[in-house]
Amino acid sequence: MDDIFGIPAPLLFGQLLLGLINGAFYAMLSLGLAVIFGLLNIVNMAHGAQFMMGAFAAWMLLAWLGIGYWWALLIAPIIVAITGIILEKLFISRLYKLDHLYGLLLTFGLALIIEGVFRNEFGSSGLPYRIPTELSGAWDLGFMFMPVYRGWVVIAALALCLATWVIIEKTRLGAYLRAATENAALVQAFGVNVPRMVTLTYGFGVALAAIGGVLAAPIYSVNPQMGSNLIIVVFAVVVIGGMGSILGAILTGFALGVVEGLTKVFWPEASATVIFVIMAIVLLARPAGLFGRA
């Protein structure tokens, strides 16, 4: 297999793989945003900073305690989720009855503070995080070599997204969460501790971002700006998929990653703006997003 549409096959499939990897991170981050907005009605601008905290937590576990990648996948999201729960209890919980703008401004300020703390402590240059031995190397697909770790990221992200969708949409816990957004007093009357459930939901959304950070650590350098570089694109993904739509976040995240990757092959100049052009078109045609409800 030499050329496809006049494009060398290794280049085309390499960009397709890169798009899938970016799409995996878009999906995981937008999924966390969708969970938090859909169930708490908070626009969490701190999500990118919490993604970055997940990567730094994995790096610190390895550099300071010698705890490797596989345990970091479990421990780092718990650490970041606990910090998120503390923030929710101290600050965010006071804004649930106010306009969305207040939550957006608060979490944006928290993101700047978190990023500034990490920048002052670790600097702006990236810190390396090695790929685990079990996932090193590459698969020979005949027309290209696919790094094993990048394939793992796509598979892990897809599995995590599908599991989250099943929990939210197909389980009793998910039904309680969705019902609490419509009528919290009624759910409370059935003996459900709604404030605790809301707090844990925020922690779960934050943990999704942190898992994405751990997965990203061996691919991108661990640095304080790694979350802020993604969060604007992720918000565009959420808007296109539909604010609060779990399925929309997953499908749109992966699809737009692929579109972005293919655009780099066929029209490189437009690759940085193609997602925002799609967002503008979707907002004009369907303001609630592709999967959202008006």
UniProtKB/TrEMBL annotation:
Topology versus the membrane: Multi-pass membrane protein
Superkingdom: Bacteria
Record key words, sorted: Amino-acid transport, Cell membrane, Membrane, Transmembrane, Transmembrane helix, Transport
Compartment annotation: Cell membrane
InterPro entries recorded: ABC_transp_permease, BCAA_transport_permease
Parts of the chain that traverse the membrane: 12-35, 42-62, 68-87, 99-118, 149-168, 200-220, 232-259, 265-285
Main subcellular location of this protein, as a coarse class: membrane
Family assignment from sequence similarity: Belongs to the binding-protein-dependent transport system permease family. LivHM subfamily.
Name of this chain's protein: Branched-chain amino acid ABC transporter permease
Natural source organism: Siccirubricoccus soli
Phylogenetic placement of the source organism: Bacteria, Pseudomonadati, Pseudomonadota, Alphaproteobacteria, Acetobacterales
